[in-house]
Amino acid sequence: MLEPKDLIIQNGVLKFVGKELTAVIIPDEVKAIEYKAFDNCTKLTSVVIPDSVTEIPNNAFEYCLNLASVVIPDSVTRIGENAFLWCPKLTSIVIPGSVRFIGKKAFCDCGLTSIVVPEGVERIDTGAFSSCNKLVSAVIPESAAIWCSSAFDNCPSLTSVMLPAGMTMIGKNAFYKCCSLTSIVIPDTVSIIGACAFYECIGLTSIVLPSKLKDIWENAFFCCSGLTSVVIPDGVTGIGDGAFANCTGLTSVVIPDSVETIGKEAFMGCTNLTSIVLPETAKVGRNAFKGCPRRKASKSR
Q1: Angle CA(15)–CA(21)–CA(27) in degrees, nearest 5?
Q2: SS3 content of the chain, % helix, strand, coil (to 5)
Q3: Residue 48: C-alpha distances to residues 122, 165, 170, 214 (Å)
Q4: What is the DSSP letter of 22?
Q5: Considering the domain boundaries, does residue 214 fall inside one?
Q6: Beta strand 160-162 with 192-193: parallel, antiparallel or unpaired?
Q7: How crowded is residue 31: how many other Cβ atoms within 10 Å of its Cβ?
Q8: Mean pLDDT confidence for 225-249
Q9: Residues 290, 260, 203, 110: what is their CA dihedral angle, to the nearest 10 degrees?
């Protein structure tokens, strides 16, 4: 049973939580939770948040090492920065459709095995689900127009991602070192693939680049050693530095006439690249094809 000393509530704000608590049902009188209220409550296993609360503040449950169950009510519209940082026992969570914002590193280093971000979420901030080592699948809604960098970086078990129709950019480090990702469907609306977006996704064996793609930024597919062929769609104007460097399984690439620049070291270290179709007018950067000794280049016309 909760003792008065276990929870300190002032003017509807939960200010303090006793570190020895194992389970908490936050009373309805609570309208807000203080920053870091549950920080380092290492014995805490379950929390029920009342529908009187509209926000989970920054760092609210960080380092709750044994937290396995959280009930978030459909009154909550915002999950703050580091809200559940380093909660390794938290294997599942239901994010209600009322949520509009998921903060920076909100679920970083959690034990989540799957996540469905509900329709209605408008922004997924930097590193929101990064370093979730057990995360296997993720679904992102169409409403998430702002999807910041590193959203799923260092999720080595991630095999399935459903990206929303309508998104225009895959951000920097979006799937950095997601080494179990074997395939992904990129919506046709994407025009930019950001720096290091698929860096060292060594399990990626195929990729269909969208028809509206304009730019592939630096190191976007660096060391994707499982890729065997790439067709760059017509309309792409730039391939960044190191974009496909060290893709050792790559045997062929077709680069359309629309490409104006191929960055330095773009295909460096692609040791099995034997067939390349290049536009006559493209500006090719230093060492773009270094280490591709068996390549046979032809000019597109």
Answers
A1: 50
A2: 0, 25, 75
A3: 25, 34, 35, 46
A4: S
A5: yes
A6: unpaired
A7: 15
A8: 97
A9: 120
* Residue 259 to residue 251: CA distance in whole angstroms: 20
CA distances for 136 relative to 41, 113, 125, 155, 268, angstroms? 27, 5, 20, 8, 31
Which residue's structure tokens are 């060594």? 202
Here the tokens at position 20 are: 């020895």
Tokens of 83: 């809200």
User: For residue range 11-47, what is the model confidence (pLDDT) as tens digits?
Assistant: 999 998 889 999 999 999 999 999 999 999 999 999 9
Percent of the chain with pLDDT over 90: 86
Both tokens of 229, joined, read: 């062929």
Sheet holding 261-262: strands in order across? 169-170, 192-193, 215-216, 238-239, 261-262, 283-284
Q: Residue 292: inside a domain, yes or no?
A: yes
Q: How far is CA 54 from CA 33, 38, 62, 129, 146, in A?
A: 9, 17, 19, 21, 21
Please state, in angstroms and rounded to a whole number, the distance separating the CA atoms of residues 7 and 231.
Answer: 60
Q: Is 35 exposed, middle or buried (0-12, 13-18, 19+ CB in 10 A)?
A: middle
What DSSP character marks residue 4?
A: T
In a domain, 12, yes or no: no
> Which tokens go with 141?
């809604």
Number of other CB atoms surrounding residue 241 within 10 Å: 22
Please give the residue range of the domain that contains residue 279: 191-301
Q: Does 179 map to a domain?
A: no
End-to-end Cα distance, the chain: 78
Give the model confidence (pLDDT) of 185-228 as tens digits: 899 999 999 999 999 999 999 899 999 999 999 999 999 999 99
Asked if residue 173 lies in contact with residue 153, where contact means CB atoms within 8 angstroms, the answer is yes
Give the number of domains in the chain.
1
Tokens encoding 272: 């099995």
Which CATH number is 230's domain given?
3.80.10.10
Tell me which DSSP letter residue 276 carries: E
